[in-house]
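Hi Prof. W.,

I finally got the Major facilitator superfamily MFS_1 prediction working! I wasn't sure whether to trim anything, so I left the full sequence exactly as given:
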Amino acid sequence: MSKISLKQSLSKLGIAIFLTYLSVAMALPVVSVFVKEVLNLPNWLGGVAVGVSFVATILSRKYAGDFADTKSSKKCFMIGFFFYMVAALVCMAASITGLSASVSFTILIVGRLLLGIGESMTTVGIPSWHFLYLGPVHSGKILAVLGMAMYGAFALGGPVGLTLYRYFGFDSVMLASSIVPIIGVIMFVTSPEVAPHKALEAKKSFFKLLRSIWKQGMTVTLQGIGFAVLGAFISLYFKDQGWPYAGIGLSLFGIGFVISRILFGTLPDKIGGVKVALVSLVVETVGQGLLWLAPHYSLALLGALLTGLGCSMIYPAMGVEVIKRISPEQRGAAFGGFAMFQDVAYAFSAPIGGVIADKFSYSSTFLFGFIAAVGGIIIVRSMMIKNLPINNTDSTL
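And this is what came out:
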């Protein structure tokens, strides 16, 4: 792989995921608002509508990983793009006038479940294809570009979704979300198939894979709670406080995320993931603390920016080390299992945050994120104190 073609491939990956992931990003801050303001249902159901897509993602991760490893990583993510389109159209049907709140909510849940399947197939298939095409030596760069594109999409998609919702309604957001995945299909339709690795040794079971990476996975789970509550409730939090610039909060999160990936994206490959994750979690903790205690919207916005800066590098830092532990023929399954830990955070944090918001306040949801980030620091510190480098060759599968 030449240096020029590497840059071209990573650029194509970034552009395609950025544009395609707008399908997810535009809907994320709008779903809970739609459930609360249009369907007049409680916050916890808004959280369920946000989180249920990640339950579907969790349940389909093993299938997606096996599909990418044994059949076709390209077909895996192309199917994911298709599910994105269908899911948005189903969600759009939830806004049909004349439907009862319960029927609309049920339709919305079906659409969000389909979105979760698309999320699983896309975010397992596309990095797996690039691991095969570019080689695992570039796994850190691949994961950094992937995450930068995804959260860059949140930086743009959040305010775009809220603006469309404000002026044209929920159905306009879903219509736009159904169109943008077509870009990903067009960009990769002519890309070559890359044959999966042939099994050279007995594969370990999926659950044994999970046990071998649980510390790295739990770090990602605890990191993801802060992002999940921010994505689901920052708009409602700002509205409840009477603050302006709710959409800017999501943008600042995304900007912080992208800046961190640009400046520090190569660090996990150079110095290892544990050190990078520790510093990142400290920054996220400060950001969540500011959101929780902010007396003014400016400090809350700063908290959103710091949360993005902190969250950014934790996933690739842990992911690079996980990839090093896994034999080539199981990288898709292992990556799917690793990503599943983050899905757990996204699936359950929003519903739990909704319960917290109903019983206490929207600001209390960020206390939840603060505590989770502190828990992540404790786990990462234990890796350092016990001197257990996760790239130990003795643990290679």
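The domain at 3-191+202-395 is CATH 1.20.1250.20 (Growth Hormone; Chain: A;). Does that look reasonable to you?

Thanks,
D.
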